[in-house]
Design brief:
By secondary structure, the chain is an alpha/beta fold. 39% of the residues lie in helices and 15% in strands. The chain is elongated. The structure holds flavin-adenine dinucleotide.
């Protein structure tokens, strides 16, 4: 058996034995078969079973739940979209950009809500996110992001901080200002992924591990 704990800090400290679940031994019929026991597969199974507890849902995982990126990421449950709010606005218009960002905020809240409801001890901490301008040249970026959030009607979620206000929170050199939002959390990625798997099983989902999907 592989020593799965050695693959990441999160798996090592997940508080779980990481012993593989039973492999799929024979042909099986389900309503929905999901490839991969990462966040994508597990959240999908979780919401399907919540919406319809009678569904037969099976997840088939080549290694163990959390073996992929879901058990090895940075642990940021972030509401940030990988492009700036101005670019979102430019590409999709004000309404869609605003709705997308609101959905991102909701997703951060929802992860915490499910952790509470399902007793997943994932160290969810909604401490927010602080973006810093290191050097005067970075300050306009922070200010223009704040202006874009303002245009999208989301200014109440963000606060521009002076260099002194940033220094009260974190000691880093050459800080000229920052942008803070409370709409982000940190999590223990390993406990979240392993806890989510247990929640799926409690709702009747089947998880087969050490089973590679080949076709
Ligand atoms: C280094 C790093 C840092 C990151 N940091 C963050 C962060 O801080 N915040 C954030 O939100 N996101 C972060 N991400 C992204 C995030 O981790 C991924 O978007 C997310 O985990 C993807 O989940 P997934 O279920 O789609 O994939 P995975 O978690 O990779 O799950 C896929 C699963 O499928 C299994 N599998 C593959 N092939 C087969 C097969 N043929 N048969 C059966 N099973 C198979 C794998 O073993 C794996 O367990 C980071 C990613 C990386 C790599």
């Amino acid at each position: 058996m592989k020593d799965y704990a050695k693959y990441s800090f999160w798996l090592e400290t997940s508080g779980d034995t990481l012993a593989p679940r039973t492999a799929l031994q024979r042909s099986s019929e389900v309503d929905i078969a999901i490839l991969g026991g990462g966040y994508s597969g597990l959240w999908t199974a979780y919401y399907l079973l919540r919406a319809n507890p009678a569904l037969r849902v099976a997840i088939v995982e080549k290694e163990i739940v959390g073996f992929g990126a879901s058990g090895r990421n940075g642990g940021w449950c972030s509401s940030r979209f990988p492009v700036t709010p101005s670019v979102l606005e430019e590409r999709f218009g004000t309404k869609k950009a605003r709705n997308l960002l609101l959905a991102m905020f909701d997703a951060v809240y929802e992860v915490g809500r499910v952790c509470d409801e399902e007793n997943i001890a994932a160290d969810y901490c909604k401490g927010g996110i602080l973006s810093l301008a290191r050097g005067a040249h970075q300050l306009p970026l922070v200010q223009s992001a704040h202006a874009a959030y303002d245009r999208l009607g989301l200014a109440d979620r963000f606060r521009l901080l002076s260099a002194a206000e940033c220094a009260e929170r974190v000691r880093i050199t050459k800080v000229h200002g920052g942008l803070y939002t409370k709409e982000s959390a940190s999590i223990h990625a390993g406990r979240l992924v392993r806890g989510l798997a247990a929640a799926v099983e409690r709702r009747g989902g089947l998880i087969y591990e050490n089973t590679e999907v080949v076709a």
